[in-house]
Amino acid sequence: MRKTAVVERVFGADIREVFQGYWDIKNWPRALSSVVDACTEYDDDTHQYFSMIALNGDARETISGVRIGTPYQRLEMCQFVSPPGFTLMRGEWRFSPILESGGSGTRVSAQREFALSDPGREAATSLVLEALLARNLAAFDAYLNREAA
């Protein structure tokens, strides 16, 4: 059975800056300490084939997949090979502008759709993914703030 974990965060940066920060895969190792390396094999500004190396505890995990971007609105991701224990792993980030008191900001909603080979672990896995998504959103927000300074 498919489950979805969702987390939101408001960034202080403009929607264009936030979307581009996520779209440029070279930013991932700069923003996330768990990502060792990342590159794109193909990018036509809408479709992107990527690969990255991420730390999973003491192990290095190679992740590859396709991302589809709708500029300044949505970024979808599908991994070719799901992580161990998963039968499905897909992601999506939604971006929406926030205009309050003359300033600008961006609401980012991050979600992971997943299915497990052991359905009995779904509730615990959902909590772990929500915590991971929250940490990653905070790390990207901090990274974009450092870049803007």
From TrEMBL:
SUPFAM superfamilies in UniProt: Bet v1-like
InterPro entries for this protein: COQ10_START, START-like_dom_sf
Domain Coenzyme Q-binding protein COQ10 START: 13-140
One Pfam family per UniProt: Polyketide_cyc
Sequence similarity: Belongs to the ribosome association toxin RatA family.
Name by which UniProt lists this protein: Coenzyme Q-binding protein COQ10 START domain-containing protein
Highest classification ranks of the organism: Bacteria, Pseudomonadati, Pseudomonadota, Alphaproteobacteria, Hyphomicrobiales
